[in-house]
Sequence to fold (444 residues):
Amino acid sequence: MRAVDIIAKKRDGGQLSEEEIRHFVEGYVRGDIPDYQAAAWCMAIFFQGMTSEETAALTEAMAHSGEMLDLHHIAPRVVDKHSSGGVGDKTTLVVAPLVASTGLPVAKMSGRGLGFSGGTLDKLESIPGFRVELSRDEFMTQVARIGLVVAAQTAELVPADRHLYALRDATATVESLPLIASSIMAKKLAGGADAIVLDVKVGQGAFMRTVGEARALAELMVGIGRHHGRDVTALLSDMNQPLGHAVGNALEVAEAVATLQGHGPADFTDHCLTVAAHMLLLGQKAPSLDAARELAREQLRSGAAWDRFKAMVAHQGGDIEAVEAPQEALPRARLTEPLAAPRAGHVAHMAAREVGLATVILGGGREKKGDAIDHAVGVVVHKKVGDRVEAGEPLMTIHANDAERLAAARERLKKAYRLVEEPVAPLPLFHGVISTSSGSTPGP
Ligand code: URA
Fold:
């Protein structure tokens, strides 16, 4: 079997067999198939798509490219969550410790930034000393000790995703339904969780632009989970504007810390409580979604979630003082510049994608595979859809370390807002739920 024939078959719209998919994934991970052929294959998949059988085979091949964890000796039930990628999405930093603080273990393999969307690993690495590259043994020991770990794919765990994820980021092949579904579900299956909550982002600042596309992605992933005997709930959540206020690695860690301490932005806190409630429900920690939400609220109120976050930081080598005093001790940009409203009005549109791309321009994301990133830079959004703003009031503040990059980001961000005379309704947080147990429903 030759890689070039598999690429050509997909390029011409053919359906790949399980064997061909496995051959390609295994060859790529071993280094027999080079990056340029894998890039061509991803582009062929991007344009031609995959059937649900092909996507399931790709997921399976990726999951089995490394070890498949079994965590049942640690706890009878382990939960996990994953976001399909958005702007300002720091949900894991709050929800994983919150859920773990109830005694329900969370063992999570996260990703790095992809295109305009941020990545949990990059955010965590803005905490001085924090290690995301754990060995399999370190990963397992930490879940057993504190019931919480957030780490990268490794040579032992889903190595195929580790390579493909970075390659897709650099070859404009991220926005592909089968590639996203297989990347996410391979990590979830290999991570050993019994129950999984998927946060499927939809809108202008997400890989899925319409509710229809997001629903198709959610159904594909829920189907893969069902096939593997996992309980899966997918939330379709709005990503037309950034989640919370902060976008950029250290800025987002600071906002997550504020949320864990009970004074985060209302929309972000509400989003976290909903995701956590679904995890607690699937983890059988509460009899109903309302009870699960109340339990989640209590874990924030009591400080238990914040304590568990600090335990994770300490176990992964991070500087506790930096998270206790994020404004002083996390990386900070040298230059800050407010972007003022040109006139009074109501915010009708606040382009999340532009804010994400501006953050990449500032150095907070990667333009090509392996680029180093600047953890300090980003954007803090002050006004969101539905808010009233007066002329000259700051719409956002840009955090930069380089004057030229700041100027380029400013030009992009000027176009991110649309102000109108008449009042505008705030955006909803969620657009629906799809789950292995109850099918599809419209609300959260
Ligand atoms: N998150 C992932 O883990 N993979 C993707 O492809 C997109 C978002």
About this structure: The radius of gyration is 21 Å. DSSP finds 18 helices and 14 strands in the chain. The mean pLDDT is 94.
